[in-house]
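The material for today's practical consists of a large collection of protein records. There is nothing in a record beyond a sequence line and a structure line. As an example, a complete record with its sequence and its structure tokens follows:
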Amino acid sequence: MSRKLVYSAVAVASLILAVAGLRSIAAPGGAEQNATSSGVEKEKKAMFKKLTPVLFVKEIEPVLPFWIDGLGFKKTGEVPEGNKLGFVMLEKDGVEVMYQSYASLDKDMPALAADARKGPTFLYVQVDSLESVKAAVKGAEVYMPERKTFYGSTEIGVKDPAGHFITFAEFAAAPQK
């Protein structure tokens, strides 16, 4: 994988996380809305509560040890698909990730099936301790060796067993004044 693609993926992921961190956005059409009867202008706001990625895979079972045994996530929900899992929700410390099998998607939303199969997902996950994450994902394929970035993080990138790219980043603590 080229550095340019990894940097682009990290930039897109950073932008998504920045947008998700916003508490509100202006309504379509800009901040100015029609005046209310009291003459005070108000803006409509959409409130964000959570952003949860759904990763599509051939089979869910091979990714579970990576998240549950390695990283300490808990299974908070699952939907069977025949004798396998069709969908699973995983959570730890308020961070959530979901997986859905291609077979489940084929039945649930067939119009999206071809798009979901086009390629892997890129996740950017901020962590408190990169050392503990490195120990937890030991043995996973590393696509980006540990590095320090110009924006203040130390990162490492690994693939989950289904081939999705996950960058873990630890930011240095802000200096005390």
Summary: The beta strands are 24-26, 45-47, 54-57, 74-81, 84-92, 95-101, 122-126, 142-148, 153-159, 165-171.
